[in-house]
Design a protein that fits this description.
InterPro entries: Glutathione-S-Trfase_C_sf, Glutathione_S-Trfase_N, GST_UstS-like_C, Thioredoxin-like_sf. This is GST N-terminal domain-containing protein. It comes from Mycena rosella. α1 runs parallel beside α3, α1 crosses α8 and α8 crosses α10. By secondary structure, this protein is an alpha+beta fold. The longest helix has 20 residues. 45% of the residues lie in helices and 10% in strands.
Length: 252
């Protein structure tokens, strides 16, 4: 017997992620947190949860709701992070992607994802990605993501009927390309004092992780119809961004 065998294992962070039929995680909001954990070299493991079990699972661990409806009812969504590394008896339990990102940056300041002086601009950039950039993708990606869920999770949404792929496929992808073209023009403004690929000059940051999380979603749900298109757009810019972020795509 090793003389170290009785030493308790050090607590590590738990990331609650969405279970799918694919062995690879794909949900973009959750990938943003996975990127930060990997970039900061924090030890963590993943707990996979099916859609029908999300609320019950999160209530059981004492997670806060990610938001609240206008009538006051709580909304429970993933990701959720449980961090017992500071105090195993009273771990930090956090919901909402942006809240988790802020917590991880404040608690683990080494290897910052918000370089000094960029927090406000990055927050606006990420808001744009969430609220504007992804909108034309939703009619394409939501049906494909639904198909990738386990049967039980698919059934959970069938009360309103399974979502279908848009009839005007090429028109839908043209609307997506308009957003990519616009963002490419904006990022080109960094070419004079940066590398023109990442959002904050030379080093990857939270903004890049938010955008690359969308690329992962497309690559894993629409590898042929989507990612093969996008990798050719804007002179291969998005493949170069993917390569810059690839070192932080570990899945634990």
């Amino acid at each position: 017997m090793s003389r170290h065998s009785s030493r308790p294992a050090a607590p590590i962070i738990t990331l609650y992620d969405l279970k799918s039929a694919s062995p690879q995680p794909w949900a973009p909001n959750i990938w943003r947190i996975r990127f930060i954990l990997n970039y900061k070299r924090l030890r963590y493991h993943t707990v996979w949860v099916e859609f029908p079990d999300v609320e019950a699972t999160l209530r059981a661990i004492g997670a806060p709701p990610s938001s609240v409806k206008s009538d006051g009812r709580p909304i429970y969504t993933l990701p959720v992070v449980v961090d017992p590394t500071r105090n195993p008896r009273a771990p930090h339990i956090l919901a909402n992607t942006n809240n988790i990102a802020e917590y991880l940056e404040a608690s683990y300041p080494a290897r910052p994802v918000f370089p000094e002086g960029t927090r406000a601009l990055q927050t606006l950039f990420v808001h744009y990605i969430q609220e504007v950039f992804v909108k034309p993708l939703l009619p394409i990606m939501v049906p494909l993501s639904h198909q990738s869920l386990p049967e039980r999770s698919q059934s959970h949404f069938r009360g309103g009927g399974a979502p279908g792929y848009p009839a005007g496929r090429e028109q839908a992808w043209r609307a997506v390309k308009e957003q990519f073209d616009f963002l490419s023009v904006i990022l080109d403004k960094n070419a004079g004092d940066g590398d023109g690929i990442v959002a904050c000059g030379h080093e990857v940051s939270y903004a890049d992780f938010a955008l690359c999380s969308v690329l992962i979603w497309i690559q894993r749900m629409a590898a042929q119809d989507g990612w093969m298109r996008i990798r050719e757009w804007n002179g291969g810019r998005w493949v170069r961004l993917w390569e810059r972020c690839k070192a932080y795509m570990d899945e634990y």
